[in-house]
Every structure is written in C-alpha cells, then in structure tokens.
Specification:
membrane, transmembrane, transmembrane helix, 42 residues, mainly alpha
Length: 42
C-alpha cells in the first residue's frame, strides 16, 4: 500500500515539475497555474 502512495506522489510531483518548466519556458516565471487535469488525462 505504501509503495502505491509513494509512486503516485512521485508521479504527481514529476508532472507538476514538468508543467512548471513548460510555464517557465513561456517567459512567465511567476504564473504557476497548473491544471491537474493535464496530469490526470495524460
């Protein structure tokens, strides 16, 4: 059970980081509005 929770947390963190980096590449470093739907649907 713990492994499932940890893997989900790592996946969510990696997805958040990826979306944050994409937002930064748009020269918008302070706007960190990341819809979690992207992570869930992909």
């Amino acid at each position: 059970m713990l492994k499932v929770i940890v893997s989900i947390a790592i996946f969510a963190l990696a997805c958040f980081l990826a979306m944050w980096l994409i937002e930064r590449k748009r020269s918008n470093p302070l706007n960190i509005k990341i819809p979690p739907v992207y992570c869930i649907e992909s």
